[in-house]
Amino acid sequence: MTTYLLAGGGTAGHVNPMLAVADGLRARRPDDEILILGTAEGLESRLVPERGYELLIVPKVPFPRRPNGDALRFPSRFSRAVKTVRGYLRERGVDVVLGVGGYAAAPAYVAARRERIPAVVHEANARPGLANVLGARSAAAVGVAFDGTPIRRGEVVGMPLRPEIVSLDRAAARGEAARAFGLDPARPVLLVFGGSLGARRLNTTLAESWRDIRSAGWQILHITGEKNAVDVPGEAGYVVRPYVDRMDLAFALADVIVARSGASTVSEISALGIPAIYVPYPVGNGEQRLNAASAVRRGAARLVDDAAFTPEWVRTELVPFLSDPEQIAAYAEAADGAGTRFGTENVIAHLDRARAARQEARS
Predict the structure, then answer these.
(1) Are both 3-161+341-362 and 164-335 of the same fold?
(2) What CATH number has the domain spanning 164-335?
(3) Which residues contact 62 (CB under 8 A, 6 or more apart)?
(4) How far apart are CA 239 and CA 194, in angstroms?
(5) Cα gap 212→208, rounded to integer Å
(6) How far is CA 42 from CA 10, 81, 90, 106, 224, in A?
(7) pLDDT in tens, 258-273
(8) Angstrom distance (rounded) from CA 173 to CA 186
């Protein structure tokens, strides 16, 4: 039996890939022990127990960004966090560690190194987080979701994805998807979404320009999100939903997608081979623009600045694109193979090699 410790969390971008790997490990060998290390404040505190895994808690110790009281207290607080993780590693007989970033990952990397337990890093974003940059220095292997991610010894392995995305047969599911959303499976569909909370820019622009898209002969499935929803009337061929719990069906129906370019979104769209228009979230350190870069270079997607995604842009750029079947076909051809559905298997292969190397070194 092998005992795995998967460390990370805070956001869905960290938690969901980590749980995809956990599910893959459990499906492969149900007798193996899979432990998740996270904080009490992160999204993992809810999602991990719901998925049936044991959550081990480590204190949340943010890296200080400026010289202040937190910076003075950081060394002792981080040392205590590492000590906590070392206790878990010893008590539970952990064989190998996977870190995906977030507050729990940094102490896990340090604890694993001190206990001489191999650690594997997976970085989901094209711009790596600080915890993973530090962890990569001593990791047994480093996997990245996107080509060109600037992290030491990074190997492109893709993103561990939800099982319903990995197994999706878009053509076979299109009829069911059309019935679920009340759309015509024989006519093209533009899928627009901005994540679970929604994207205000995408929503307000669609609210003013959906008729232009409909006039081009396209149907629209617009998932507004639950926070930034706008009041737009749905009508035949324009379906508005605040939330969709079967995104696999939405993807099955989509011929072109307009979306933000979070790491999971880009990975799922690329794995399914769907042409996309990415509108990166303008706040942050620019990682969403970088996440979309490889698909754009391949010719599978276009990139539009948030400020430029206006009703006028829809009329002058998007509608002509949607009205050009040959151009869409070229994008679809480029999108086919832009991503991988084997991210989970690739990360597990890293874990297997790290564990095997440890066993060989002991023998």
Answers:
(1) yes
(2) 3.40.50.2000
(3) 70, 103
(4) 15
(5) 9
(6) 4, 16, 24, 15, 24
(7) 999 999 999 999 999 9
(8) 13
